C-alpha cells in the first residue's frame, strides 16, 4: 500500500512537472489567443466630460511586476507633471490603471476593461512584447490607439494602424553595446553568445547580437543555450570558456543572466560581458553582486540626457524613489507625454471635449503619428507604421561598490 | 567527449548529486516512518535557504512585509547554515503537528496526507512571497571568506576549473550523510527509528514512544532540506519562493531510483541523477528534468523496488 501511494504520487508529480514545463515555455509564436469571445465593442459615441482618461496597462502582479511597476512609476510622475502644467489646454488628464499581469490573458482583460468600461482615449502598455501580440489586436479592432512603452520585439508596430511604441526595437539598441565593447578593447576577436532558448524575446535578441558580431568582423566561437529557469550554468560556461572568448554576450533575464555572469566570473573569465535588455534592470545587481562589475548594457535612456523635460522627470523621480530613474519609467513617462502633446495639438484644431470618444480616438491616432516630441528619452517621432524614430542611444556599464551590495549603471561617454 | 570535459562534468555531477542526496534523505526518512511522501519538503528547502540568508546578512531582504527588517546579529556562514537548518527543522515539526498529526489520528487515507502536505507547501511558498517578495536573493560575496572562486583540478595546459562553492557543497553534503548514517545505524535513537520503520505497532509495544520519534524524524528531515536549500542557494542564489519546487519533484525521482525507504539508496540515487544531468549536453539543458524523470519511469517498469530497495514479499 505504502509503495503504491508513493509511486502514484511520483507519477502524478512527474506529469505535473512535464505539464508545467510545457505550459511555462514561451514558444515565441505570435499567435493571438483571441477566440472570438474577445469582442471589444466600441460604440462610444458620447464625448468626454471631465478629465481625459488615458489607460495604463502594466503588470502590477506576477513575475514581471517589477518591470510593470517601473512603468507605473513613470506614468504617475507624468500625470502629475502634465496636470501641473495645465493638462490639455486647461483640461486635466486622468490615468486609469489596470493590472495586465504577466501573461496574455491578463493583458487582454486589462485592455478590454480600459476600452469598454473606462472608455479611455488611448492605452499605454502592455509590459511584455508577448502580451502585446495578443492584446494589441483587441485595441486595433476597437480603433483605440496603443503606445507600447516596453515592447521591443520585432513586429509590434506592425500589429495594426493604431499600434505604436516609444520603446526602440532591440535591433536598433542592442548593436550599440557591441560597438562600445570594441571601443573599450579593440583587440576583441572571439565572441561567445549565450541565450535563453525558452523566451521569445531573448531568441530574437540573440539573432541581432549574432548578426552584429558577424557584421563587425568578429569570430563567433560558440552559441550556448539555456533556460530562463536554469540556475546552474557550469556546463555551458565551461564549454564556452574552453574556447577562450574575449567577449561574452548574454540574452536572458535578470535572475538567470545574473547567475550566468556570476558563474563565468567565478570560473575565471576576465573578458568583457554584454547583457541584453533582459538584464537592463537593477534587479540583476542583487544576483551577481560584486561580480556584475563591468557588464555592459545598451540603453534607450540615460538619466544624464540633457534637456529641460528630462531634468524635470529625473528630479521628480529621484525625489520620490531616491534613485535614478530606470529606462522603463522614462519610456512610460514618454508615452504619456506623447498622448498629452498629441491631444493638445488636436484640441487646438477641434475642441476635444466636443468630439465623440470613437472619433477622438481615431483623430488622436493620426495626430500621434504626425507629431514630433522632445521627451526624456530625447527627440522622437514615429514612422507611418508607428515605429519610434529615436535620435539618441546609450551604453551603460555596471559599477559595483567594493562591498558588492550596491551598484549603478554608469553611462559610457 | 575528451577526458578533460568528462572529468569536468563528472565533478559537476558529484556536486549537484550530493545535494540531491541529502535532500532525498529527508523524503526517505519520513517515508520510512510514516509511509507517506511529504510534498512540503521542497518548500522547507526554500525556507532553509531564506533563514540562512537572513542570518548571514543580518536582514530579511529588501522586499515584502519584512523589507529591511534587521536582525541583531550577522553570523558566519557555517553557524548560519546550522541555525538556519535548525529553524527549517522546527518548521518541519510544526508542519507535522498541523498537517499530518490530525489526519493520522483520524486514521485517514495516506493519500489525503499527501494532498495535505501539498497544501502546506503552497501556503509556505505564498507566505514567503508575502514576507520577502519574489526577487532573487544572493548570499554576500564574502560568504566563503577568503577562499578562491575556483579550484583547478587539471593542469595548467588542460585546466578543469571547478567553482569552490561546488567543492564545499560536496564536502558538506557528504559530512551530513555520514553523520546521519551513523545516527541511524549506531545510536539508540536511530535504532528506535529503524524499529518504528519496521513495525510501528510492535515498536510501541516494546516501549518506544512513536509520536516522539515521528517529531524527531520530521525535524531531521526538514533540517536536511534546510541544509540542501542553503547549499544550493550559496552556489546559485535563491531564485525566489518557488526555488524548491523543482528540487521537490526531482527528490521523488531520486528516492524511487535509489529504493523507497533506503538511506544508501537515496545517496546513490542522488548521485546518479546528478551525474546523468551533468552529462546532458549543454544545448539540451532544458531537457534535464525530462531525462531525470525518464529514468524514474524506466526504473518503475524495470526494477520497481529501485536500485537498493527491498522487494516487498507478501505472504499468503
Describe the structure in your own words.
The complex is a heterodimer of chains A (413) and B (316). Chain A contains 13 helices and 15 strands. By secondary structure, chain A is α/β, with parallel strands linked by helices. The longest helix of chain A has 23 residues. In chain A, the strands form three sheets. Chain A has a seven-stranded mixed sheet, with helices on both faces. Chain B is mostly helical and 316 residues long. In chain B, 67% of the residues lie in helices and 2% in strands. A two-stranded antiparallel sheet of chain B has the order 1-2. In chain B, helix 5 crosses helix 6 and helix 9 crosses helix 10. The N and C termini of chain B lie far apart (53 Å). The model of chain B has no long low-confidence stretch (mean pLDDT 89). The chains are: A alpha/beta (413), B mainly alpha (316). The interface between A and B is large, with 56 and 57 residues.
Based on CA inertia axes, which overall geometry of chain B fits? globular
Ranges of chain B where pLDDT stays below 50 over 5 or more residues in a row are none
Distance between the termini of chain A: 70 Å
Cα distance spanning the termini of chain B: 53 Å
Question: Largest beta sheet of chain B, briefly?
Answer: 2 strands, antiparallel
Count the beta strands of chain A: 15
Strand order within the widest sheet of chain A? 7-6-8-9-10-14-15
Mean pLDDT score of chain A: 87
By DSSP (H or I, 4+ residues per run), the number of helices of chain B equals: 11
SSE class of chain B: mainly alpha
Mass-distribution shape of chain A: elongated
Features:
heterodimer, A: 413 residues, five-stranded parallel β-sheet, 13 helices, 18% strand, elongated, B: 316 residues, mainly alpha, 11 helices, 67% helix, 2% strand, globular
Amino acid at each position: 500500500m505504502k509503495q503504491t501511494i508513493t509511486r502514484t504520487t511520483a507519477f502524478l508529480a512527474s506529469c505535473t512537472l512535464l505539464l508545467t514545463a510545457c505550459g511555462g515555455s514561451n514558444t515565441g509564436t505570435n499567435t493571438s489567443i483571441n477566440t472570438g469571445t474577445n469582442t471589444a465593442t466600441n460604440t462610444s459615441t458620447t464625448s468626454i466630460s471631465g478629465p481625459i482618461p488615458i489607460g495604463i496597462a502594466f503588470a502590477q502582479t506576477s513575475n514581471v511586476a517589477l518591470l510593470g511597476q517601473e512603468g507605473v512609476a513613470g506614468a504617475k510622475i507624468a500625470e502629475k507633471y502634465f496636470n501641473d502644467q495645465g493638462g490639455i489646454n486647461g483640461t486635466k488628464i486622468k490615468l486609469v490603471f489596470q493590472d495586465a499581469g504577466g501573461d496574455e490573458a491578463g493583458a487582454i482583460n486589462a485592455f478590454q476593461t480600459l476600452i469598454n468600461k473606462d472608455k479611455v482615449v488611448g492605452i499605454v502598455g502592455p509590459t511584455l512584447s508577448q502580451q502585446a501580440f495578443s492584446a494589441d489586436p483587441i485595441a486595433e479592432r476597437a480603433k483605440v490607439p496603443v503606445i507600447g512603452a516596453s515592447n521591443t520585439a520585432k513586429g509590434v508596430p506592425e500589429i495594426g494602424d493604431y499600434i505604436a511604441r516609444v520603446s526602440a526595437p532591440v535591433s536598433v539598441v542592442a548593436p550599440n553595446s557591441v560597438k562600445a565593447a570594441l571601443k573599450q578593447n579593440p583587440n576583441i576577436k572571439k565572441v561567445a553568445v549565450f541565450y535563453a532558448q525558452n523566451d521569445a524575446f531573448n531568441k530574437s535578441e540573440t539573432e541581432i547580437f549574432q548578426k552584429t558580431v558577424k557584421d563587425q568582423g568578429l569570430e563567433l566561437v560558440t552559441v550556448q543555450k539555456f533556460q530562463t529557469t536554469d540556475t546552474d550554468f557550469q556546463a555551458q560556461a565551461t564549454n564556452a570558456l574552453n574556447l577562450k572568448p574575449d567577449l561574452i554576450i548574454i540574452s536572458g533575464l535578470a535572475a538567470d543572466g545574473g547567475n550566468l555572469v556570476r558563474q563565468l566570473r567565478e570560473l575565471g573569465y576576465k573578458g568583457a560581458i554584454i547583457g541584453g535588455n533582459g538584464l537592463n534592470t537593477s534587479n540583476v545587481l542583487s544576483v551577481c553582486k560584486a561580480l556584475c562589475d563591468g557588464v555592459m548594457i545598451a540603453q534607450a535612456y540615460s538619466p544624464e540626457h540633457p534637456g529641460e523635460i528630462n531634468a524635470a522627470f529625473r528630479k521628480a523621480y529621484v525625489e520620490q524613489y531616491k534613485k535614478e530613474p530606470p529606462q522603463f519609467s522614462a519610456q512610460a513617462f514618454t508615452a504619456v507625454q506623447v498622448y498629452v502633446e498629441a491631444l493638445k495639438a488636436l484640441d487646438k484644431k477641434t475642441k476635444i471635449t466636443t468630439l465623440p470618444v470613437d472619433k477622438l480616438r481615431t483623430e488622436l491616432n493620426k495626430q500621434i503619428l504626425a507629431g514630433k516630441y522632445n521627451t526624456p528619452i530625447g527627440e522622437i517621432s514615429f514612422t507611418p507604421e508607428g515605429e519610434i524614430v529615436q535620435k539618441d542611444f546609450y551604453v551603460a556599464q555596471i559599477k559595483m561598490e567594493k562591498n558588492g551590495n550596491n551598484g549603478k549603471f554608469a553611462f559610457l561617454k | 567527449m575528451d577526458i578533460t570535459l568528462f572529468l569536468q562534468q563528472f565533478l559537476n555531477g558529484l556536486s549537484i548529486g550530493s545535494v540531491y542526496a541529502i535532500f532525498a534523505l529527508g523524503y526517505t526518512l519520513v517515508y520510512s516512518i510514516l509511509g507517506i511522501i511529504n510534498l512540503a519538503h521542497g518548500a522547507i528547502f526554500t525556507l532553509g535557504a531564506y533563514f540562512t540568508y537572513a542570518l548571514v546578512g543580518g536582514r530579511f531582504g529588501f522586499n515584502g512585509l519584512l523589507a529591511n527588517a534587521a536582525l541583531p546579529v550577522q553570523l558566519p556562514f557555517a553557524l548560519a547554515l546550522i541555525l538556519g537548518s535548525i529553524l527549517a527543522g522546527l518548521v518541519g515539526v510544526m508542519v507535522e503537528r498541523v498537517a499530518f498529526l490530525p489526519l493520522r489520528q483520524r486514521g485517514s487515507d495516506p493519500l489525503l496526507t499527501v494532498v495535505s502536505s501539498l497544501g502546506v507547501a503552497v501556503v509556505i511558498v505564498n507566505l514567503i512571497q508575502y514576507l520577502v517578495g519574489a526577487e532573487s536573493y544572493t548570499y554576500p560575496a564574502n560568504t566563503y571568506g577568503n577562499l578562491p572562486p575556483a579550484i583547478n583540478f587539471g593542469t595548467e595546459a588542460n585546466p578543469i576549473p571547478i567553482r569552490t562553492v561546488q567543492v564545499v557543497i560536496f564536502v558538506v553534503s557528504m559530512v551530513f550523510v555520514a553523520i546521519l548514517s551513523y545516527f541511524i545505524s549506531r545510536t539508540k535513537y536511530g535504532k528506535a527509528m529503524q524499529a518504528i520503520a519496521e513495525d510501528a505497532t510492535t515498536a510501541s509495544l516494546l516501549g518506544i514512544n512513536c509520536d516522539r520519534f515521528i517529531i524527531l524524524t520530521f525535524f531531521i528531515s526538514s533540517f536536511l532540506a534546510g541544509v540542501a536549500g542553503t547549499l544550493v542557494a550559496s552556489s546559485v542564489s535563491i531564485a525566489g519562493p518557488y526555488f524548491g519546487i523543482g528540487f521537490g519533484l526531482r527528490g521523488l525521482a531520486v528516492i524511487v531510483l535509489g529504493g523507497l525507504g533506503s538511506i544508501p539508496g537515496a545517496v546513490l540515487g542522488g548521485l546518479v541523477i546528478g551525474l546523468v544531468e551533468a552529462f546532458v549536453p549543454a544545448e539540451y539543458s532544458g531537457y534535464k528534468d525530462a531525462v531525470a524523470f525518464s529514468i524514474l519511469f524506466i526504473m518503475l517498469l524495470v526494477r520497481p523496488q529501485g536500485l537498493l530497495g527491498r522487494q516487498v514479499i507478501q505472504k499468503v
